[in-house]
Amino acid sequence: MNNNKYNEYVIFLIGLVVFLAAAYFGYQKLHYGFNFIDEGYHMTESWRLAQGDHLLDNKSGSMVAYRLINSMIFKGNPDITLLGFRKIQYVLTLCSLLIFSLCLYAVTRTYWHLPLIFSIFAFTGLDPTGMIANLNYYTYPHLFLILFLSFFIIGLYFQKPCIKYAGFIVSGLFLWAISFSLLYLSSVVLAPILLYIAARTLPFRSFSFSLKDLIIVLLPFTAGWLLFIGIFAHSFIPATLDALFSALSTTSSSTEALSASLTGTGGYIGITAIFVLLFCFLTKKSRGYLAPVVLGGVSVLLYFIIDSSFFGLIKPYYNGWLGRPMWFSGLIIAFIMIFWIHIIQKTVRRKSLAWTEELIFILLLPVTIKSVCTIFFSSTNAMTVLHSAIPAVAALAFLFIYNMEMKKKSIWLKFAVIVFALAPFYYTTSWADWRFTYFDVVPTKADAVIKEGFGKGINTNGVYAELYNWIDKAAAKYSDEDDFMISYVVSPMTHMITKRRPALNDTFICFSTRRTDVYAKSINEMRRNKREPAIAFVFQRMTMLIPVSLKKGNVKFISPQFKFKWSNDPISRYIKNHMVLAGQFYISRQNDHVILCYVDPQLGNIKLPADK
Q1: Beta-bridge partner residues of 596
Q2: Is 156 in contact with 365 (CB distance < 8 Å)?
Q3: Are residues 259 and 325 in the same domain?
Q4: For residue 546, what are the β-bridge partners?
Q5: Phi-psi bin for 341: left (phi > 0), alpha (psi -120 to 50), beta?
Q6: Does residue 340 lie in a domain region?
Q7: DSSP percent split of the chain into helix, strand, coil, nearest 5
């Protein structure tokens, strides 16, 4: 073994140790944080399909058909828990990283840097934002994007027909899966089409991509949708149009919101762009032992910029809850913009691309398309770029260590470049992911463990644990397993706690984002389909703990969304007119945070008078 090979092996082992340590702590992280809101929504909307509801009963169902995948998991394992779903996501993350790494190695024949650059994802999983480590419309597309690119580059770089076409066919299946999990990501199908056009106009030398290759990639995508639409044509198309018009009419998916998001994140993107350009410049100019010292100094400075939100000059993103991950997202956005400007410049000047630039081109094409779509449609806007982070980080690493200036330099210098370039982002993102349990307490204060039911094994705070048990006991006392239930506002996890199917076609009931007539139609549809609830839980405010300070671990409850006593919305009217109070849960000692339990005295197993 020559000296260079030995050094590669040593660095690989160092990276592997870091990766395994991150994986261990990432697994432990899965046990912390219980979420009544978004994670409950993802789970309930999938579980209800396993119980007999139809995907297209909900107007958003056509947009997020990943629920069918989750419903099959529920059917295969009816007793699966929330922690079990998180573990599946965790295992899929590790498997996708392994497949992606093997495919990159097969193409580049280098491996030493892979465990190190992917180590953060062994901790965060497929959701580096630190919100929901579960299988949903953010993590599934990330997973399928990785697998699409893994097999696509095999098809591009291998000449043996059986391997080449097998790679293209499998990549086409995952291309369809991306769009199936989140419909508006069907636009990612443009990636191979644009690559075909680019291959006709740019002097690519490391691979070829013919019209026949393009057709083979697109065939599984086309066949998948033709089959699905053929089965559900009568309801899929109207539901899709309805969901699309609804999405485009909301402020979160408007052009103004997109512009506002980019303006609000401009500081993050601008500073990280300077950082990327500075690192590229320093790797070219620095010589000898001075290079790591200079790069290390820049890295330390960037850490303090991230930790202090540029010394207090930049408003922390999303009220500070997602401030640190936003820097990581800013890094990826800045890198994408810089790379495409570089490619345009080279094209105008008629300069050929290096093989690494061609590989980065392939990796970033679908990443860019997907990121633009999610920024436009998602309420977290630019933060969603992190759901394409795994292939983006691989491309960034190639930029730093395989450019012409670094090609002949020491492998230890390349190792130092990767460490100093990524460490500030990796550490601060991981720290935030650990501290922000998505509206629960920080792990060190999660002193209660849910012992039964869907939440079994989750560490949470004492109030959440008591509320969980109260909801479970109330449902068991006043209803049967085949009864229907209403829970609002924004408290869909109660359906998973009680295992009672939703009476309404929407479980994310929020009066601030839905028109009154929408819920009036839902009530009418509920009664027409004979899904009247036997029990209802009324949360007058969302059960979410807002971080006051991530560093100190201080949290507070969100303000009330409505007052049930005076509310006149269609759902409240129905409950007041058809159900009776059966119990109350007091969260605060001042009695200003109360959760109400109502039951139907005829449908529910009610024993009056109500207990309090």
Answers
A1: 538, 584
A2: no
A3: yes
A4: 556
A5: alpha
A6: yes
A7: 65, 5, 30
Residues 193 and 230 in one domain: yes
Candidates 172, 86, 180; CA nearest to 141 is 180
Total domains in the fold of the chain: 2
595 φ, ψ to 5°? -110, 130
Tens digit of pLDDT for each residue in 189-237? 999 999 999 999 998 999 999 999 999 999 999 999 999 888 877 777 7
Rama region for 311: left / alpha / beta (φ>0; ψ in -120 to 50; rest):
left
151 assigned to some structural domain: yes
Instruction: List the helix and strand counts (H, then E) for the chain.
Output: 21, 9
Whether 454 is covered by a domain: the verdict is no
List Cβ neighbours of 367 (8 Å cut-off, separation of 6 or more). 145, 336, 388, 391, 392, 395
Identify whether the C-beta of residue 392 lies closer than 8 Å to the C-beta of residue 332.
yes
Q: pLDDT, tens digit, for every residue of 139-173?
A: 999 999 999 999 999 999 999 999 999 999 999 99
Whole-number Å distance between alpha carbons of 594 and 315: 34
Instruction: Check: CB of residue 338 under 8 Å from CB of residue 276.
Output: yes
Domain assignment present for residue 344? The answer is yes
How far apart CA 249 and CA 251 sit, in angstroms, is 7
φ, ψ of residue 289 in degrees (nearest 5): -75, -10
pLDDT at 607: 52
Instruction: For residue 179, give the nearest of 127, 246, 226, 234 by alpha carbon.
Output: 226
**Three-state secondary structure string covering 61-126:** CCCCCHHHHHHHHHHHCCCCCHHHHHHHHHHHHHHHHHHHHHHHHHHHCCCCCHHHHCHHHHHHCC
Give the helix/strand (H/E) hosting 547: strand 545-549
- Among 467, 564, 558, smallest CA distance to 511 is for 564
**Which residue has tokens 């999938």?**
46
Residues 6+ apart with CB under 8 A from 67: 45, 46, 49, 55, 61
For residues 519 and 376, membership in a common domain is answered with no
Both structure tokens of 92: 């899929």
The parent domain of residue 416 ranges over 3-435
> At 579, which amino acid appears?
M
Sign of the C-alpha dihedral, residues 381, 383, 388, 393? positive
Cα dist. 555→157, 429, 551 in Å?
51, 20, 11
Give, in order, the Cα–Cα distances in Å from 15 to each of 4, 121, 186, 236, 456. 16, 13, 35, 47, 34
Q: List CB contacts of 237: < 8 A, sequence separation 6 or more.
A: 229
Based on the domain organization, do 79 and 185 belong to the same domain?
yes
**What pairing do the DSSP bridges indicate for beta strands 554-557 and 459-460?**
unpaired
pLDDT greater than 50 at residue 424: yes
Co-location of 547 and 590 in the same domain: yes
Against a cut of 0.90, is the pTM above it?
yes
- If asked whether residues 471 and 390 sit together in one domain, one would say no
Do 342 and 488 lie in one domain? The reply is no
For residues 468 and 413, membership in a common domain is answered with: no
Rounded to whole angstroms, the Cα distance separating 253 from 286 reads 45
User: What is the rounded CA–CA span in Å between residue 347 and residue 583?
Assistant: 70
